[in-house]
Design brief:
The complex is a heterodimer of chains A (413) and B (332). Chain A has helices spanning 2-28, 57-72, 86-95, 110-115, 134-139, 162-168, 176-186, 202-214, 225-239, 252-260, 274-280, 315-328, 331-341, 348-357, 362-367, 382-397, 403-411, and strands spanning 45-50, 75-80, 102-106, 141-142, 145-146, 148-149, 152-153, 157-161, 192-195, 264-269, 284-287, 305-308, 344-345. Chain A is α/β, with parallel strands linked by helices and 413 residues long. Chain B folds into 2 domains: 2-52; 93-331, MetI-like (MetI-like fold, Orthogonal Bundle). Chain B has helices at 2-25, 33-72, 79-84, 93-100, 102-132, 140-146, 149-152, 155-165, 172-178, 196-221, 225-233, 238-266, 270-275, 287-297, 301-331.
């Protein structure tokens, strides 16, 4: 009797402690290493943090950093962080006061980080925004102050497989109606007309934006007839079977794989896919995202990363960091970075000149003056709106709701 | 250094232990009282000293995170918090926000379905495999070792492979299904709201079978062979032998497997993130994934912690209820 009872107690204790272990795994994710410390080292060494992990981008950027560091007379220490970890890493660094001296941020994240007070106002370092497209400056401005400077930008457009369209006798679509008929006609023999990413992350929102904005949708209130129209277009193409249902689980890299494998005749994607497409040997063309009606403008989202100077509490280093940022954004470096990374310079004059000499990216270069910043209207509130948008998209595509209902539900949380 | 200190405490402890009974037989009138109490204090201190390493470890790595998580549930976290360190207490705001959100009911239901479905599948198949491997047959050991494979493959890798297998258009599963005459069309395993949860449960069952089979097999090894022989003489073979010999004797192991299984399954995160990321249209969103999204995507650690605490409560509740029921069954 006695050993029996003791075993029972032991078992209860075991089970209870097992239950208590549970939150640890969740809480433990919050910790992490802080190997890169910006405040360590001698005064002449600056830490630069970005998320360019892969070649060719990595080598190109490191080349520019080294040249700029030499010009500024400082040593640098470059840290590449995985893209998905950058923001949590930055928040940890802000907490432990180990921010890097020069920090790259994806442009829609800047406002959130600037709002926390972790970034320095660049105007104190005489950073000028002359010649930059308006959307670019807007994306790096929070509360009237400039916190970042972005050398190159990108956006998304419609890629098409020249062979498949020629075989079907179809011209690249320019309007929504043409897009619908073209994708339907190109859907045959187990292949889909169009591939895009409707995933439940900010990536899915980004892909939907050119349709949403061009139709007149607005992130302040997504429950509008204009937004419903844009969503209806996607729903129609999904229901017609012109887009694979797997698109709700595809990242843009997955979309590119589908296109490369010839499983989709057209795709919505960005110029960062050029190198991998060239490798695959697919003969493709690029046109702007089709507009709601003929002649109407397409509003495309502004992509790319912006460069900031965190508040490290060391004014000398901050001044040097600002110098490096100015150097990264110089006319020559904008051109070099754009060419090597298949992106577009952010100064309108340079973008124009660049588009004239690079026919492959001309479509993207033409977009630069009108690119719309995701944080332009809502600032630090953008992530919440972006979540609503992708939620509505998924609810309408596979959740069985009508576009109007999906948008209304998402807007009301 | 530390070993010498340990040896020291060990020596003094055994010293004290050895002295105590001797003191006990001495008559108290000879002024033995102070000596005895000082010896007792010494023994007491020695006992505590033994506990210290374990206590420090528990407090640091178990107590602190639990308390911190409880507190965080009542605090408001924003991205600003990381820079300023200010996280004001907001009472039950996080809990009202989390429990009042339309997603919570869905996530709770998904959590229950996911856990129940996974445990049922894992346990039944795991037990069947364990019983099967009790017989001796050629390659028994090799096959049993192979059974552990799902455990050895990194989760991210197996999630990627499963994503490919379950792909609607080009996945291996649908290719195989098409060979069957009565299947029409391609089921969208991971991208339809009706199938995604089932697919995720299926993958999690595959993942949990090695754990269940291994522990249950260990339990089966403990049951003496004579019992089956004796049972066979009385006509208990096959199913009756399982029902009346195997099952009752396996009970303690079953308890451990089920309690651990439920706790592990409630908090499953990686496999869902890898397969569907909680989608499509939140159809595989569980409380664990929702807590992850709130904390690490939206950086609202207050709400994330509140959801984490709900999960803790759920697993505690399960553990208590299950153990109660089990105790009753054993007493009967």
């Amino acid at each position: 009797m006695c050993p029996m009872a003791r075993r029972r107690v032991l078992k209860t204790t075991l089970a209870a402690s097992a239950a208590l272990l549970l939150p640890l795994t969740l809480a433990a994710c919050g910790g992490g290493s802080d190997e890169a410390s910006g405040t360590g080292g001698d005064a002449g060494t600056l830490t630069i943090q970005d998320y360019y992990n892969d070649d060719p981008g990595k080598t190109v950027w490191e080349g520019v950093y080294n040249a700029c560091a030499e010009a500024a007379g400082v040593e640098i220490d470059v840290v590449h962080v995985p893209g998905s970890d950058l923001i949590s890493k930055v928040l940890q660094q802000a907490q432990s006061k180990t921010m890097p001296d020069v920090l790259m941020l994806d442009n829609p994240d800047l406002q959130q980080i600037a709002a926390s007070g972790a970034l320095a106002d660049l105007e104190q370092f005489d950073v000028s925004t002359d010649g930059y497209a308006e959307g670019i400056v807007q994306a790096s401005t929070y509360d009237g102050k400039l916190y970042g400077l972005q050398p190159i930008t990108n956006s998304i457009a419609l890629f098409y497989n020249k062979q498949l369209l020629a075989d079907a006798g179809i011209q690249p679509p320019t309007t929504w109606d043409e897009l619908k008929t073209a994708s339907a006609a190109l859907t045959k023999d187990g292949k889909y007309g169009l591939a895009l990413s409707a995933i439940n992350t900010y990536e899915g929102t980004w892909q939907f934006l050119p349709f949403f904005w061009s139709a007149g949708g607005d992130e302040k209130d997504i429950n509008t007839p204009e937004a419903a129209q844009a969503l209806q277009l996607w729903v129609d193409m999904f229901q017609a079977g012109s887009i694979s249902q797997s698109a709700v689980n595809w990242t843009q890299a997955d979309v590119n794989d589908q296109f490369k494998a010839g499983n989709a005749a057209m795709m919505v994607n960005g110029p960062w896919q050029f190198p991998s497409l060239a490798e695959s040997g697919v003969d493709y063309g690029v046109v702007p995202i089709p507009a709601p009606t003929a002649g109407a403008p397409t509003v495309s989202p502004l992509g790319g990363e912006t460069w900031t100077v965190p508040e490290t509490g060391n004014p000398d280093k901050q001044a040097k960091a600002a110098e490096i940022i100015k150097c990264i954004n110089s006319d020559d470096n904008q051109l070099l970075l754009a060419e090597e990374n298949n992106t577009v310079p952010t100064k309108t004059a340079i973008a124009e000149q660049y588009g004239a000499t690079n026919p492959a990216v001309k479509g993207f270069a033409d977009l630069v003056p009108d690119l719309r910043a995701r944080t332009g209207e809502l600032g630090e509130e953008w992530p919440a709106a972006a979540t609503k948008i992708y939620t509505a998209v998924q609810e309408a595509l596979v959740g069985g709701k009508s576009p109007e209902q999906a948008l209304a539900d998402a807007q009301n949380g | 250094m530390s070993t010498r200190a340990d040896a020291g405490t060990l020596a003094s402890a055994s010293d004290a232990a050895a002295r105590q009974p001797r003191d006990g037989v001495q008559p108290p009138s000879r002024g033995g009282r102070p000596a005895r109490s000082s010896a007792r204090t010494k023994a007491r201190i020695a006992e505590l000293a033994f506990l210290v390493p374990a206590l420090v470890y528990l407090v640091l790595f178990f107590g602190y995170p639990v308390v911190k998580n409880l507190l965080m549930g009542f605090q408001e976290y924003t991205t600003k918090t990381f820079f300023t360190g200010e996280a004001p207490f907001v009472g039950l705001d996080n809990y009202t926000a989390v429990l009042g959100s339309s997603l919570f009911d869905k996530a709770l239901l998904n959590t229950v379905l996911f856990t129940a479905g996974s445990i049922l599948g894992q346990f039944v198949i795991g037990l069947a495999i364990a019983v099967f491997f009790r017989r001796s047959f050629p390659l028994n050991n090799v096959l049993r070792a192979l059974l552990l494979l799902p455990w050895l493959v990194p989760l991210i890798a197996s999630a990627a492979v499963w994503r490919w297998i379950l792909d609607t258009d080009y996945g291996a599963l649908n290719r195989a299904l098409q060979l069957l005459p009565f299947i029409d069309g391609n089921p969208a395993w991971l991208t339809s709201t009706s199938l995604a949860l089932i697919a995720v449960i299926g993958v999690n069952i595959w993942l949990g079978i090695p754990f269940n089979a291994t522990i249950l097999y260990g339990g089966l090894q403990e049951i003496p062979e004579e019992l089956y022989e004796a049972g066979a003489l009385d006509g208990a073979t096959g199913w009756r032998a399982f029902r009346h010999i195997t099952w009752p004797l396996l009970r303690p192991v079953v308890t451990v497997v089920l309690v651990l299984g439920v706790v592990y399954t409630l908090k499953v995160l990686d496999i869902i993130l890898g397969l569907t990321n909680g989608g499509p249209a939140n159809s595989t969103q569980t409380i664990a994934t929702l807590s992850y999204v709130r904390s690490f995507k939206e950086f609202d650690f207050g709400q994330g912690a509140a959801l984490g605490n709900v999960l803790v409560l759920l697993s505690l509740l399960f553990a208590v209820v299950y153990l109660r029921l089990n105790r009753k069954a054993v007493d009967e």
